[in-house]
């Protein structure tokens, strides 16, 4: 983790140390929370991400939006009251109440994790297609368990990260990307909920899949056959799972 060095007076240092002690934190922890606040990010939790603080302009814009929505919903007293409460919290700067404002906002899925999901879907696109190119005898020889392993089997909704990844898969499929995965998100497969962790297995399979492709590129260059798997390739990928 990178280090940032700043110079402050002795009085400021003493005040910061006293404040950190009063909050049961180290000075580094205290300063990190304030840096997160400046960046508009709150503490990481398993639930929605709520900023520790909002700038005056952000509060003004959000408050005005609630004012507009309250006017548009004037025929519904419940909605009007809801928006008026949000306005009061934002205008008053009651930071502990911001969680209601951001209750529907999920923590970010990092770019690395988004790419990982895409890599996994690409792998299963290739293995699923390869299965259709095998002869009947070759498919039988692979065995049902291996064939099932070579199909996308969702993510575990009981795991925060995997649940977020499953939502991303649904988003991608809804935008006609990796549309071939859609049947695996149906009620027959419980909407893609695997009910057990899948990411470690997918990562192991992905490693073998990428090794095979790298070797093919080294041997064959940019040939289309780089993306064509035979029964032995499929067994190796499934075995990693």
UniProtKB/TrEMBL annotation:
Domain of life of the source: Bacteria
CDD domains per the UniProt record, alphabetical: RHH_CopG_NikR-like (cd21631)
Stored Pfam families: YfbU (PF03887)
InterPro entries documented for this protein: UPF0304_YfbU (IPR005587), YfbU_alpha-helical_sf (IPR023146), YfbU_helix-hairpin_sf (IPR023145)
The name this protein goes by in its record: YfbU family protein
Source organism per UniProt: Nocardioides conyzicola
